[in-house]
Automatic annotation (TrEMBL):
Single GO BP term: intracellular zinc ion homeostasis
Lineage: Eukaryota, Fungi, Dikarya, Ascomycota, Pezizomycotina
Similarity-based family: Belongs to the LOR family. Belongs to the cation diffusion facilitator (CDF) transporter (TC 2.A.4) family. SLC30A subfamily.
Name of protein: Metal ion resistance protein/transporter
First-listed, main subcellular location of the protein, grouped into a coarse class: membrane
Example of a GO cellular component annotation carried by this entry: membrane
Length: 577
């Protein structure tokens, strides 16, 4: 017969044990004059209060009908109890520490040290019993001792929609293309450090383990005072009480910090607000993201809300887009998300992606607004409007590290193939008709790593050179070129320019192509065209994903494609031939 004791029953038993011992210990402490016993007794009093708070939190949490004012029910009751418990412990630690200093200055003789030692032994034994109660609870409820919580199991089953505000809770995948699409971040990013051992119970457990150490200190102090003959033996009592005070302080601070941060609605550990915002803005169809809020309801559940500025106002398109957004949030361990769509005309672009230029006009991420200088490797493919392309890897007879570039209609615009920089060979770029455009070479040297030449002119005129940049994130580099779109100008600065490529993101790997203070292109792992993201757990290091490329007006498409291929080879690697 498997007899199972509930959590409330266990806490009740621990409260009974601690209360009985508190009465005995405080009485013996005042009788013998031992500050260590008195300090330990008041620590027990703090424990009792903490246990009562945890018991009350567990009791109210089981209520089926919380007050209507508590829209989340009692899910934060244990957090409040843990915070209160930590503050109480901290105040007690300060008090005992000050009393210990006073006892060092004014030393008092301890009567009957043998009794002090006996009480310490009894307290140690009772604490071990309490630990077994809570330890059994920990396994009985399926929590375990791994201090990490895998969010992947926590997927509510329903998606709620009301008007234009969508709450996405389900693990739906966009367009049926992501059946095997799994997001996994580094454990430090998706798993709260407090883990399955919830904060309220963790506070109780810390108390009892601290009490065991305190009891050992009381036993040692009793033995020293009882068996030693020198006059300084009575300093053992305030020394132990000071050690107890320090232990109380150090055990209370982490509890206050962790529970306090959640009560302040902080983001989950390892989740950076800007990373999430950047990843969302890379999803095709989303122009900008603002009013993004991420917070923890408790130590196991995280919530988020965001306003999405969409490229179009189609409701059906938004609901499809919401599924992709939901999947991105899932990768960060956030499974309850509220989204509000906004049209491009209904929201000022300055809310998230604009900057004010000197003439007072506004320029968004697409570069529209103030006239910007054109940028080109060759003048044949300069864009007149915003262009979106898909860079897809494929294998051909010459190389398994080949690429095709298609527009939104699925028409091939460019191809890039050839041996991957082996033995002085290169990758050749061709247009849709097969006409050679230029060649990209790999050249390991101090000054440059990549260089671009005209077809068949490896040792001749160099159109552009590229080199890695020293930056915290691997995959940052720069491209220097003679601007073919500025050949008529007499300014040397206008003829030669350097594009900076910055890598971003944790879930979606992406790159910004920057000219001075403006972003001329975005390159990002495609959510719609990949079964899984290239750098997630379990992916091959050499897996090359499809990339979404968005190019602003006045920029050479072929140049940005070359930059995108360099970025792909640098970060994702490629299957070498």
């Amino acid at each position: 017969m498997n007899f199972k004791i509930s959590r409330i029953q266990r806490l009740s038993a621990v409260i009974g044990i601690s209360t009985s011992f508190f009465i005995a210990e405080i009485a013996v402490g005042f009788y013998t004059g031992s500050l260590a016993l008195v300090a330990d007794a008041f620590h027990y009093l703090s424990d009792i209060v903490g246990f009562v708070v945890a018991l009350a939190a567990a009791t109210v949490e089981q209520k089926s009908s919380p007050p209507q004012a508590l829209t989340f029910g009692w899910q934060r009751s244990q957090l409040v109890g843990a915070f209160f418990n930590g503050v109480l412990l901290f105040g007690l630690g300060i008090s005992v520490f000050l009393q210990s200093i006073e006892r060092f200055i004014k030393l008092e003789k301890i009567e009957q040290p043998k009794l002090v030692m006996i009480i310490g032994c009894v307290g140690f034994g009772l604490n071990l019993i309490s630990v077994m109660f809570l330890h059994e609870h920990d396994h009985g409820d399926g929590h375990g001792h791994s201090h990490g919580h895998d969010y992947a199991h926590e997927h509510p089953e329903h998606e709620q929609e009301r008007g234009h505000v969508t709450n996405t809770n389900s693990s739906v995948l966009s367009d049926g293309k992501h059946a095997h699409h799994k997001h996994y971040l580094n454990a430090s990013a998706t798993k709260p450090k407090t883990g399955n051992f919830d904060l309220a119970l963790m506070g109780v457990f810390i108390h009892i383990m601290g009490d065991c150490a305190n009891n050992l200190g009381v036993i040692i102090a009793g033995l020293v005072i009882w068996l030693a003959d020198y006059g300084g033996r009575y300093y053992a009592d305030p020394a132990v009480s000071m050690a107890i005070a320090i232990m109380i302080l150090f055990s209370s601070l982490p509890l206050i910090k962790r529970s306090g941060l959640i009560l302040l609605q902080s983001a989950p550990d390892g989740v950076e607000h800007e990373d999430v915002k950047h990843d969302l803005e890379q999803i095709p169809g989303i122009r900008a993201v603002h009013e993004l809020h991420i917070w923890r309801l408790n130590q196991k559940k995280s919530l988020a809300s965001a306003h999405l500025v969409l490229e179009n106002d189609d409701d059906l398109e938004f609901h499809k887009l919401a599924k992709t957004v939901n999947e991105c949030f899932h990768a960060y361990g956030i499974h309850s998300v509220t989204l509000q769509p906004e049209s491009r005309t209904g929201v000022k672009k300055a809310t998230s992606v604009t900057r004010v230029v000197s003439q007072g006009s506004e320029e968004g991420a697409d570069g529209q607004g103030e006239q910007q200088r054109p940028i080109a490797l060759r003048q044949d493919y300069i864009t007149s409007s915003k262009i979106s392309l898909i860079l897809s890897p494929y294998g051909d007879a010459q190389s398994v590290a080949a690429y095709k570039v298609k527009d939104r209609d699925g028409q091939t615009v460019f191809t890039a193939s050839g041996w991957k920089y082996n033995g002085g060979s290169c990758r050749g770029f061709r247009d849709a008709s097969g006409l050679p455009l230029f060649e990209l070479h790999r050249n390991i040297s101090i000054r440059s790593t990549w260089y671009i030449t005209l077809p068949g002119d490896e040792r001749g005129f160099t159109l552009a050179t590229g080199a890695p940049r020293f930056a915290p994130a691997f995959g940052n580099f720069s491209i220097t070129l003679n601007n073919a779109a500025a050949m008529d100008t007499k300014s040397v600065a206008e003829k030669e320019l350097t594009l900076v490529i910055e890598r971003h993101g944790h879930v979606l790997q992406s790159f910004d192509v920057i000219d001075g203070d403006r972003r001329v292109a975005d390159v990002c792992e495609s959510v719609r065209h990949n079964d899984k993201l290239a750098l997630t757990a379990g992916s091959r290091r050499t897996h090359r994903p499809a990339l979404d490329i968005v190019i602003t007006p006045g920029v050479d498409m072929a140049l940005i494609v070359a930059v995108s291929i360099i970025a792909s080879d640098s970060v994702f690697g490629s299957d070498s031939s």
